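Design request, tokens follow.
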């Protein structure tokens, strides 16, 4: 698929006035269908009154209409199973589309209208100890473990080996399937989840989630048990991460289906307290999974709100490890997530996480130092990179021309500290980080006065106005690990703009960009809006 066609879809989802015209409607239709977006995209296109080819419209409408029928049939079975689980006192939670198309978290309307979200199955989260009880209920309702063969129009049963393998290697039961007499919805599939990750030891997390179940009223006035709203979001995050990092899903072309990220995008657009979500994420120790998914949300939807949330975690956007649990092999992707969204099959983009991966990195067009002792470099791009680290200390990099004259001198300080200092007419404020973290009790010296940073890595020298016309400096740290930097003088009265600075001048496309700086409260406080128009509070 063409990149601009993907941008068109993203603009439609974000309710943006798109500048993109569709290059290939046929490939775009295939993308919409395989990513389970047909009903939702059709609704958005209708509301925006955008003209689309009649053939494309009719195809989307047919899927939308069929999905309305499927939603209604699935709802009847959800109600049946829900009743059995409740009368047998089995704690559980219906998940994903079973809730998003049927229930409202705010007693208003569901996230999706009827037919907007494709639901192929019914997902239920349950404690492993209750698996036997639920399986008896499903057997009572004539479900069997297998899959529906469309060509034969019958349910093919799994053998015992396949059933055990799925439970052992994927931490899920083999699907439970029931053949119906409905020609439009020929079968019903139940997916039982007893683990929130690919790990076999996360039962405690499952217990925590299931201890926070609530019943929400459905559109047909029944009550369905699911996870409390914020716990529901956490589960969506964990589920997306689980499928994103599992080679089994990559092989099935289901690792990055866009609907999974759309679910989160739409839920997070509602009245969600991100600080409350952050506290829950930290309580459950799923910070890394959350960071990965929010970073992917940022990459897909280009939303600063998602990137801002990522700043709460001290992680780098390193290559994501893809695990093949059955063959005990690790992989990474060569392509970004947006590049992968353009292709149906991304298995060719996988690289084994071993010597092959290391060689791949070595073959990148980074400049390398050929002779560290003489400080000569082979430069293939606009920057150079040492192949060997330097000890803590002070250095000078000298750039020589072809006639061996010095063109440029650049002082270099090697240590674990990073700092930024800004001065006004009266005061000097210094931020200090140690190994990437804002650090407490770091000594900072200015004009012979020594102060220590607070728990936010800040130190402030008050009423230290200087008449000096020369550049002034502050010293950070001690003799063994010391940083000396100049003070950036800023006239807040005459130039009250916001200033932001990055933690380094150059990045790879896999790096996390960390920024610091200041925003004057008198200009921006309570005036900044996030992706969905919610007021945010800026900090100086």
């Amino acid at each position: 698929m063409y990149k601009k066609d993907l941008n068109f879809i993203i603009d439609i989802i974000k309710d943006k006035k798109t500048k993109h015209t569709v290059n290939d409607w046929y490939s775009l239709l295939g993308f919409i269908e395989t990513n389970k977006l047909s009903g939702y995209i059709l609704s958005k296109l209708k509301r925006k009154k955008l003209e689309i080819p009649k053939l494309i419209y009719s195809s989307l409408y047919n899927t939308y209409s069929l999905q309305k029928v499927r939603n209604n049939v699935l709802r009847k079975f959800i109600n049946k199973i829900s009743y059995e689980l409740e009368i047998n006192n089995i704690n559980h939670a219906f998940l994903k589309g079973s809730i998003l198309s049927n229930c409202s978290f705010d007693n208003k309307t569901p996230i999706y209208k009827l037919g907007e979200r494709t639901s192929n199955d019914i997902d239920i989260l349950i404690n492993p100890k209750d698996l036997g009880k639920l399986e008896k209920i499903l057997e009572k309702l004539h479900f069997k473990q297998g899959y529906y063969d469309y060509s034969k129009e019958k349910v093919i049963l799994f053998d015992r080996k396949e059933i055990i393998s799925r439970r052992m290697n994927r931490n899920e039961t083999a699907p439970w399937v029931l053949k119906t007499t409905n020609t439009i919805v020929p079968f019903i599939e139940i997916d039982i989840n007893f683990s929130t990750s690919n790990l076999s030891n996360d039962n405690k997390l499952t217990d925590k989630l299931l201890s926070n179940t609530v019943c929400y009223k459905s559109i047909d006035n029944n009550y369905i048990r699911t996870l409390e709203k914020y716990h529901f979001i956490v589960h969506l995050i964990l589920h997306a991460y689980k499928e994103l990092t599992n080679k089994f899903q990559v092989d099935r072309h289901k690792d990055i289906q866009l609907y999974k990220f759309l679910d989160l995008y739409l839920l997070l657009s509602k009245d969600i307290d991100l600080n409350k979500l952050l506290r829950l994420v930290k309580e459950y120790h799923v910070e890394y999974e959350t960071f990965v998914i929010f970073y992917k949300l940022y990459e897909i939807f280009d939303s600063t709100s998602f990137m801002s949330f990522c700043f709460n975690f001290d992680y780098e956007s390193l290559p994501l490890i893809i695990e093949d649990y059955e063959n005990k092999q690790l992989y990474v992707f060569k392509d970004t997530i947006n590049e992968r969204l353009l292709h149906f099959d991304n298995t060719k983009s996988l690289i084994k996480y071993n010597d092959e991966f290391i060689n791949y990195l070595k073959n990148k067009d980074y400049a390398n130092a050929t002779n560290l002792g003489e400080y000569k470099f082979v430069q293939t791009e606009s920057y150079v990179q040492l192949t060997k680290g330097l000890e803590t200390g002070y250095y000078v990099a000298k750039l020589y021309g072809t006639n061996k004259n010095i063109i440029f001198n650049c002082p270099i300080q090697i240590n674990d500290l990073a700092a930024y200092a800004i001065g006004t007419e009266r005061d000097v404020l210094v931020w200090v980080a140690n190994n990437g973290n804002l650090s407490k009790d770091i000594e900072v010296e200015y004009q012979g006065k020594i102060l220590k940073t607070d728990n936010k890595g800040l130190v402030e020298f008050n009423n230290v106005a200087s008449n000096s016309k020369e550049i002034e400096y502050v010293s950070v740290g001690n003799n063994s690990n010391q940083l000396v930097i100049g003070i950036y003088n800023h006239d807040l009265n005459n130039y009250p703009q916001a200033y932001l600075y990055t933690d380094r001048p150059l990045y790879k496309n896999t790096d996390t960009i960390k920024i610091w700086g200041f925003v004057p409260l008198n200009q921006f406080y309570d005036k900044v809006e996030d992706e969905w128009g919610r007021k945010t509070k800026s900090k100086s």
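Comment from the thread starter after seeing the answer: thanks! The chain has three domains: 71-355, 368-413, 415-536.
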